[in-house]
Amino acid sequence: MAELTTDIKTNEKDEKPISSIMKESLMNRMAAEITLSSNSGVTMKKWRLLFGLKQSEVAKKMSISPSVLSDYEKGKRRSPGIGFVRRFIRSLIELDEERGGINIHKYSGYVTTIHKAIIDIGEYRLPRKLIDLIPLIDGIFLWGNVKSDAIVYGYTVIDSLTAIRYMDAHEFIYIFGSNSMRLLVFTGVSTGRSPMVAAKVFPLKPTAIALHGPKNEKEVDLLAIELAESIGVPLILSKSSDIQKLIENLKKAGDQL
Q1: Residues 21, 9 contacting (CB under 8 angstroms)
Q2: Which of the residues 180, 203, 214, 217 has the least number of beta carbons within 10 Å of its own beta carbon?
Q3: In the chain, how many H helices and how many E strands?
């Protein structure tokens, strides 16, 4: 994939360099994940969504019709060849560069460090509907009844007290694993205010946040619910009595990388 990279560029918005090594690393990772996937189309869709791009945008960049890209993502066509995958990845990268390279920076060197505040973290090979994960954590919505198409590609279970005591602001990125389209479960929560304040100020936003600790909705701080609404992230109360069982259920929700 080296031929797809270019020399160092500068992001005009924040002046952070986008190096050829950075892009090559990300493109190689994307290519490997797509070509080795049992469902290449689904994995392609995953990366398009992670980059925040519409099918029409990517199709236009690739000089193909949106229906062609849609057919690949839905598995209506045979697995794409390496040439098609190369054009797809190049299009995502170039479109992101035009917008400042935010996702190139975000995913080229994703954090693999496990902070002690993280109880468990997992990535799903295939998308999982958020609505299907709610029963697994014995959850109820506090705000934002999820749409049927909301999906997650991973989960993180966090010890909220340890996070508050030992996690610096720049270390908050650790809880997002390899992508931000995930369910964050904060355990040991009293009212939910602290986790939601952190989610409010941090630039990356998860698909949804679950609070574990309060026994019922009345024990959750109203500010936590207001913050969830302000950032547009569904807030869930997990009533699971066993954290380890909760984790086991999330693990079983799909194959992990």
Answers
A1: no
A2: 203
A3: 11, 8
Pairing assessment for the beta strands 139-143 and 235-238 based on DSSP bridges: antiparallel
CA–CA separation, 93 and 146 (whole Å): 30
Per-residue pLDDT of the chain (257 residues; tens, 9 = 90+): 333 333 323 343 333 455 676 788 789 888 988 988 889 999 999 999 999 999 999 999 999 999 999 999 999 998 899 999 999 999 999 999 999 888 888 887 655 567 899 999 998 888 899 999 999 999 999 999 876 679 999 999 999 999 999 988 778 888 988 788 999 999 999 999 999 999 998 888 999 999 999 999 999 999 999 999 999 999 999 999 999 999 999 999 975 54
What is the architecture of the domain spanning 118-252?
3-Layer(aba) Sandwich (3.40)
Q: Which residues, in sequence order, are CB contacts of 157 under 8 Å at separation 6+?
A: 118, 119, 120, 121, 185, 187, 243, 246, 247, 250
Q: Give the C-alpha separation, 208 to 185, whole Å.
A: 9
Quote the tokens at residue 14: 């924040």
Does domain 2-108 fall into CATH 3.40.50.300? no
Give 22: exposed, middle or buried? Use CB within 10 Å, 0-12, 13-18, 19+: buried
40 by DSSP, 3-state: which?
helix
Q: Where are the alpha helices (DSSP H) in 16-172?
A: 20-36, 40-50, 55-62, 66-73, 82-98, 102-108, 130-133, 160-166
Which one-letter DSSP state was computed for residue 39? S
Domain residue spans of the chain: 2-108, 118-252
Beta pairing partners, 210: 185, 236
Amino acid at 183: L
Evaluate whether 2-108 and 118-252 have a shared fold. Answer: no
